[in-house]
Amino acid sequence: MLYTLIHTIHIFAVFIYGGFLFTDNLFIAKMKQSLSEDEHTKAREAIMMHVRKVVPKALIVAVISGMYLFTQVFGKISPEGFSTFQIALSIKAFLGLWLGFRGVNQVFFGIQPWVFKSHIFPFILVVIIIFLSQFMFLDFTSF
Ligand code: HEM
Question: DSSP per residue over 53-83, as a string?
Answer without folding.
Answer: HHHHHHHHHHHHHHHHHHHHHS-PPBTTB--
